[in-house]
Design goal:
The protein has 5 helices and 8 strands, in the order βαββββαβαβαβα. The protein is an alpha/beta fold and 209 residues long. It has a 6-stranded parallel sheet with strand order 5-2-1-6-7-8. It is globular. The structure holds pyrazine-2-carboxylic acid (VGL) and zinc ion (ZN). Zinc ion binds next to loops.
């Protein structure tokens, strides 16, 4: 497949926090860095996302006395998985992996900076209302197809893909360039939700990248 001016690659959260040794490690998370570097070379338009929480963020289990990571609690906007403290603004955990090598990336979307609302998706906070501005940015640049890769498949990648579809973009997840967390069946559910929404799922080999 050829990629051009109307295509964008969205690289989700390739930060130390999601790598082995990070505060919210995704198994095999570091394996996708060289794969994403290779794929990105085919895209002139690349957007990076960066999970970017203030200390004391409400998605952190440590903020809720008596709770532990991976508990699920109701919040005003729906059920929230509680996480270990991760990707706190300005910390090493929040930095991009040093081997990520896409200097021509054009935009970095930071998300999760509202203290009381999580934001898995690059398009909207978890309240499904507060936009990041990404949909308008892509539309203004006449981008119609987005390709999503990164971490984690079942949270930030899936929510980004689903919101991208809801915003009217053609969306493909490049599956070998993602890794999942899998909390309480979240990985199977994410793939099922994405399929039902019309998100395409391909390997980089099938896309010829
Ligand atoms: C993510 C959980 C919490 C992700 C971010 O990048 O998938 N998951 N914050
Ligand atoms: Zn987070």
């Amino acid at each position: 497949m050829k990629f051009g001016a109307h295509d964008a690659l969205i690289v989700v959260d390739l930060q130390y926090g999601f790598m082995p040794g990070g505060h919210l490690p995704v198994p095999g998370g570091d394996e996708v860095v060289p794969i994403v570097n290779r794929i990105a070379r085919q895209f002139e338009n690349v957007v990076l996302t960066q999970d970017w929480h203030p200390a004391g963020h409400w998605s952190f289990a440590s903020t809720h006395p008596g709770r532990k990571p991976y508990d699920i609690v109701p919040m005003a906007y729906g059920d929230q998985v509680l996480w270990p403290d991760h990707c706190v603004q300005g910390t090493h955990d929040a930095e991009f992996h040093a081997d990520l090598d896409i200097p021509w990336a054009q935009l970095i979307i930071r998300k999760g900076y509202h203290i009381a609302v999580d934001s898995y998706s690059a398009f909207h906070a978890a309240d499904r209302k507060t936009p990041t501005g990404l949909a308008s940015y892509l539309r203004e640049r006449s981008i119609g197809r987005v390709f999503v890769c990164g971490l984690a498949t079942d949270f930030c990648v899936a929510w980004t893909a689903l919101d991208g579809r809801a915003a009217g973009f053609d969306v493909t997840v490049i599956e070998d360039a993602c890794r999942g967390i899998d909390v309480a069946g979240s990985l199977d559910k994410a793939w099922a939700d994405m399929a039902a929404a019309g998100v395409e799922r391909h390997s980089s080999a099938a896309l010829g990248v």
